[in-house]
Amino acid sequence: MGALPDELAPALARAVGQADRACGREFWSGVWHQQPYVAVLSRIGKVAAASTAALLIQRHQVDAIVFTGVAGGLAHGVRVGDAVVATEFLQHDMDAAPLFARHVIPLDGISHFPSDPELSLRLERAARHAQAQMRAEWPLGWQGLDLSRSAIHTGLIISGDRFVSRASESQALRERLPDALAVEMEGAAVAQVCRDHGIPFAAVRLISDRADDHAHPDFLRLVTDLAAPFSTHLLDHLLHKNNH
C-alpha cells in the first residue's frame, strides 16, 4: 500500500491483467521474484486508508500488509532523505476526552498499535538496501541533499488528518509526543484495521520534509524524484525469497 502513485510506481508497473475494482479502489495483482502481491493506493487520510485496508484484507485474503511512502520528520536528527521503519503507530489527533484519555481509541483502550516485529525487521533490512542503492545512483547527492548521510530510524510514527506544514505545529507535536519520529496521514489507521483482522502490518516512510514552513516544496520534489526509486529497491529486496 501507498498513498500516492509515485510511492507504488514499481509495484503498479509489474501488475498483470485487469485491476479488481471496488468502492473506487483499484487492486492490482502481480508477481515479483515468484512472490504474488496485490498493490493498491490507500488514498490520503485515515478514513480512506482504513477503508482500503479492510477491502484489501477481505477481497484478497492477504497474509500481510506493508505500507511504503513519505512522511514529515519530527524528531531532531531525523533528516530529509532518511527513512523511518515504524515499531508502533498512534493517531495524534484522536481526542475523546474527558470520556477517554487523549490518543486512546475509544472502547479499544489503547493508543499505540505495534507493527509486526518480524515483518518490520525484514522491512528495515530492505530499507537499508534501498538507501545503499540510492547512494550509488546519486553519488554527488540530489538537489543539494547529501544522500551519503541518510540513515534508518526505528520507532513511533504518528498519523493525523492534517498535512503538518508549519514549524509551530511540528513543535507542538514534539512537545506532546516526544517519542514520535515522523508524522503522516495513514499508518495508524491501517495498523488499527490490521490489528482488528489479525493481519501482520509494517510500514516504512522516506522523510520528504521536516513538517515545517518549507514542507510543501520539499515534499513535492522528493516524492517526484526519490519516492519511486526508493520503493523499487525496497520492494525488490523485500520480495526476494533469499531475503526472507
Question: How would you summarize what this structure contains?
Answer:
The chain has 244 residues and is an alpha/beta fold. It is 35% helix and 24% strand. The chain has a single domain (63-243), classed as 3-Layer(aba) Sandwich (Rossmann fold).
Structure description:
- The protein has 244 residues and is of the alpha/beta class.
- It has a single domain (63-243), classed as 3-Layer(aba) Sandwich (Rossmann fold), CATH 3.40.50.1580.
- Helices cover 35% and strands 24% of the residues.
- It has six helices and nine strands; from the N terminus they run αβββαβββαβαβαβα.
- The chain has helices at residues 9-13, 46-60, 117-137, 167-176, 187-197, 215-238; strands at residues 20-22, 25-32, 35-39, 65-73, 83-91, 113-114, 152-159, 180-184, 201-209.
- Strand 7 (152-159), helix 4 and strand 8 form a beta-alpha-beta unit.
- The radius of gyration is 17 Å and the shape is globular.
